[in-house]
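Researcher: First entry.
Model:
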Amino acid sequence: MLDEEVTLQRQTSTVYSLLNQISRQTGCFFVYDSELIDNHRRVSIRRNRKDIRTFLQEILNDESLSFLTIQNHILIYRPLPEGESPLANVDKPAVPSSFTVRGRVLDQVSGAPMPYASVGIPERGMGISTNQDGFFQLRLPLSLIEENLQVSYLGYKSQKLPLRLLDGNQVDIMMETDYISMQEVIIRYYDPKTIIREALERREENYSPEPVYLLSFYREGVQRNNKFLNYSEAVFRMYKSPYNAPLVSDQVMLLKARNITNIDRSDTLVLKLKAGVQSVIELDIMKNLPDFLDPEFIDEYEFTNADLLFRNGRGVFAVEFRQKENVRGPLFMGIIYIDQEHMAVIEADFEINPRYLNQAQHRFVTKRNPNYVSNIEQASYTINYQYYNGRYHLNHLRGELKLKFRRKGQLFSNNYSAFIEMAVGLIEEGNVSRFGRREVLQPNIIFTDQGYQYDETFWGEYNIITPEASINEALSRISSRIESFVAED
């Protein structure tokens, strides 16, 4: 592929633009870390026809960089000091037994990070979600090195990259918007409420009728004036009960956990936010129907704008909803995304109507100090599902809360924010049974209330949501107490 010839016109353009021109002519895709290559550097070239390798050397102007091709991808990388290929460890004996891929998922046009993108091998039920910075890290068995990594995001074309190409490198994955034809938009009309009702009717056939285990990473945090009071992480195995058995509860077995605390437990806490495992269980909107999907309350909502988008090459309806004007109280508003073929809810972004937020205090704040007054400013949620083995399964969810908190009689408030987030790393089917009573984590715990033993070597082989740069920086500044839990084998 590097010997294929292309023609570039005389121009002065950015490195990023020139690489895109080569991609469009040849159908190849460049994979690299933007820390190595300045995408915005401007380069002047003369009109010429050359092979790809020669153009790359001219455009990049860095003799330390090398190129490697696999399938229709070209990896641009800097070799290790010993001169080894970044893939050298793949051909060694079966130790280590796993490999790690890292990277960022970015918008191709703006370069903006894309949070909550799905990254993994959907055919294996394995993956993770990107963090707020668009970054991901995924540890996989070495036996999967010849497979492809799939990156998907609603409204964008999915990317598939050879895992062999990514091992040992941190890369930027640029996502291209997936447009639909104007004819598709103009000619067809979809009634949004009919779409919602059909999705509810097909719920039992679209979501797993059998229990599964979900190996999941969970985190929660509380900040005051942008400084962390606590930050907790956990890996647990969830017994996910069948979607057609609403009375059968989910269970959680805690495998590992750690808390980073910036407060003394002897202090009187002004606030405890309702979070923890119970919130994760309740946020599965296809298992526990919220009022905007509950047939008993659905008529309290207006459903509009059934736009058509794409994810993984499949049509997706985007249906907006909000409570009717004559309906009072703290109800939800947002967008539901429904797969066009299966009529399955695959994603939802929603929040409590800002007009009625302060009527929802009891939903979020517990152990409230009577000497303080709180005002909720935002309560928002996002959840998505992945398709695996013919059914949809929980994939990622996040809830965020912002509020002001002040002592009675004082003028100024403290700004608090809290979040919970869970990402499923592995779906396990077959031989699934409920956990024993002593194995089950109580769903109503708040992680920051728990005490655990500290463990020097922590996450090991588990896939986690990598902490954002802002979180790492904030945690590094605090004099913290770190407490951890590790389950016994």
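Researcher: Second entry.
Model:
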Amino acid sequence: MPKIGRNREKGTLILIPLIMDRGEFEESKTFNLADILEFNSNAIVVKNISVQNNCIIQAFAFDYGKVLSHNESPFIRFIHIIEGKAEVVINGNSTFMRRGDSIIIPASTSCSFEANHKFKMLCTTIKNE
């Protein structure tokens, strides 16, 4: 899960506002991913869509300059960019993504998400049993 963030402008590790909405969405009801969360100035906003024993689905909104780093994770993550552009760094290798792009982050890898522009993403974390 999220550990630490930093401000891109300053280049130093600092705690950043991480606004978490733990409420889940009702099953069998439609919703628009781009509309379920708003950007918040100088913060990363996280909304839980569904939390199950072996799968967590979350939506994130990153303000410009925000970075979210994960230590090595034993879980597979599926990332889909909903809006904007993102830089995803997996084991030190950068991948630039834009709206509509997706990537699978393998288990046992470290990664970070960097907001060179504001962006929203969907993250599905799959726990190996």
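Model: Note on the second entry: The radius of gyration is 14 Å.
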